[in-house]
Amino acid sequence: MGIAVRGVCPLLEVFGFEVVEAAPPGDDCGWALLRLQEAELMLNTAHEAKQLALADSDGYGLCFQWPADTRARPRRRGQEALVSGPELLLSLARGPSRVREELAKGAVSERFADLLSVAWVYGGIANLCIPALLLLLAGPLATKSPLAWRAALVIGGYYVLVGLGTWAFGIRRHTGLLVFVVFGLALLIPPWAARAAFRP
Questions:
Q1: Residue pLDDT, tens place only, 41-100
Q2: Does the residue 57 lie in any domain?
Q3: Half-sphere exposure of 104 (CA within 13 A, CB side)
Q4: Predicted model pTM
Q5: Quick one: DSSP state of residue 23?
Q6: How far apart are CA 16 and CA 82, in angstroms?
C-alpha cells in the first residue's frame, strides 16, 4: 500500500531560490518573485491563484494545484446588483480603500488601481447626483416644463447607455449591469408617452 500524500510544501530556499520582490514586503506576502540563476518563479495568492505549471529540465510538465474550495458561499440571484441607500454610501466609501489594499498586496498594477479609483469615484458621485437631479425635476415636470421633459429624457438615455455600455464592454458581462437599462427605460417611457403635453 502506497503513502497517501495530501499536500506538498517544498522549501524552495533549499534549491537556492532568492526573493527578488515581494508585495507586501515580508513573510506574510501575497505575491513574490523568486530567482535561481536565470530561472524566475512568481508565486501569487491574489486572484485566488491555485495552480502553478512549469516544465522540468527533461521537458516534462509539472503542475502544482491547491484543492478547489467546495464550500463556496451560495449567492442570491442579483445579489451583486441590488444595494440599498446606506450600503451604497458604504460601498462608495469602501471602494477606493479596497483598491489601495489590493495595490499593496500586488494584486493590481498602480496604473490599473489609479484608473479603477477614478472610475469608482466618478461613477459613485454621478449615481448620487443624478437621483437628486430627478427629485429637483419632479416639480417642473408636473407643471409641464419642456426643459424638465428634455432633461428627464437625457437622464433616462444616460442610464440606458451606461447599462448597455458597461455590459457590452465589461470583461465578464455581468447581467446585473442591465438593471441600469431597465431604470433608464422606466425614466424614458412616461415622459415619452406624455410628450404631446410638453410641447410649447
A1: 777 765 556 566 666 666 666 666 655 554 444 444 333 444 445 655 666 677 788 888
A2: yes
A3: 8
A4: 0.48
A5: E
A6: 51
Residues forming a β-bridge with 22: 32
Categorize the per-residue pLDDT at 198 as very low, low, confident or very high, splitting at 50, 70 and 90: confident
Residue 46 covered by a domain = yes
Q: Distance (Å, rounded) from C-alpha 54 to C-alpha 32?
A: 16
Angle at 29 between CA 56 and CA 62, to 5 degrees: 15
In angstroms, the CA 15 to CA 57 distance is: 14
Task: Report the number of distinct structural domains present in the chain.
Answer: 2
Non-local CB neighbours of 137 within 8 Å, separated by 6+ positions: 148, 151, 152
Domain enclosing residue 52, as ranges = 12-64
Residue 81 lies in a domain: no
CA distance 139 to 76: 38
Instruction: Report yes or no on 86 lying in a domain.
Output: no
Which residue carries 448620487 as its cell?
Answer: 128
